[in-house]
Specification:
10 strands, two-stranded antiparallel sheet, 10 helices, alpha/beta
Length: 280
């Protein structure tokens, strides 16, 4: 199943960001395949002739610059195409009003770049509809009311660190209770402090047998100025030591660098000091 989904993604989805990768096939990196794709799409069992997911909920923590938005767009489009559900509902919950349009446009562009997608999907102003099954792909704001009355077969939550409480997450999961094999995926970077919805949800994740967590970031034991500690984050082909140093140089504070580049929740609430030229 995971292999078939990857073949679809690689053959039909393309990079759509404004960089040198635009228009190229969306090929999974090894870290994406082993830590995201396989656990979500290959873990489960056949029951009554149908595949039953082991993980119905997942949180994927990635540093800034690791393509979270494109990954969300490619995943929802691949799943909606591969899992034929008449009148199926597939959604991406965006972190802001601007991000709603950004993600929607990325999905539409992916459709336009592939001949088969163009034949299957019809993009409207706010909804993308499958011409044969009537399945819908939507991008919604992170407001509980926006998720009420919907029963999403697959729902992707973008940048969960902005959620002030559990109401958006809870509203999405509540709508899935009536479905047989739903999936909710949160894709995010670390939050601003070690408290709040995302932090508490991660702390409780081990108590949820249906939850899968993959978090790519520095641990508390890792020193942020130790080059060797950063090796485990250099798993994407475009992430190098030079790119990490560049982010360090442009970071507004040590706190921002720790949060967005190291993908670690800052331990000190009020540490907004800057790096000196000798550090890192």
């Amino acid at each position: 199943m995971a292999r078939d989904y990857e073949k679809c993604c690689a053959a039909k989805c393309h990079h759509v960001s404004n960089d040198q990768y635009y228009g190229q096939p969306f090929l999974l990196e090894d870290f994406q395949r082993e830590n995201i794709w396989k656990p979500i799409f290959a873990c489960g069992e056949m029951a009554g002739g149908k595949f039953k997911r082991k993980h119905r909920r997942a949180i994927i923590g990635l540093p800034s610059g690791y393509g979270k938005t494109e990954l969300a767009a490619a995943m929802v489009l691949t799943i909606a195409t591969m899992e034929v559900v008449y009148n199926g509902q597939y959604g991406v919950v965006a972190s802001s009003k601007d991000q709603v349009r950004n993600i929607f446009d990325k999905i539409v562009t992916m459709i336009k770049l592939d001949e088969d997608f163009n034949e299957q999907w019809s993009p409207g102003k706010d909804v993308i509809t499958h011409k044969e099954t009537g399945a819908k792909i939507m991008v919604l704001p992170n407001k509980p009311d926006a998720l009420e009355s919907w029963h999403f077969n697959v729902l992707i939550f973008d940048e969960m660190h902005v959620y002030k409480d559990d109401r958006v997450w809870a509203a999405g999961l509540k709508g899935q209770k009536v479905l047989e094999n739903p999936l909710s995926i949160g894709i995010t970077t670390a939050g601003d402090s070690r408290e709040g919805f995302l932090w508490e949800t991660l702390k409780k994740a081990d108590d949820d047998p249906g939850m899968y967590v993959y978090w790519l970031g520095l641990d508390d034991k890792d020193k942020i100025d130790d080059r060797k500690a950063w090796e485990k984050l250099m798993v994407a082909s475009w992430v190098t030591w030079d790119s990490i140093q560049d982010q360090r140089g442009s970071a507004s504070s040590k706190r921002a660098f720790e949060r967005y580049t190291a993908n670690r929740f800052p331990s000190k609430k009020d540490d907004y000091s800057c790096f000196s030229s000798q550090q890192l």
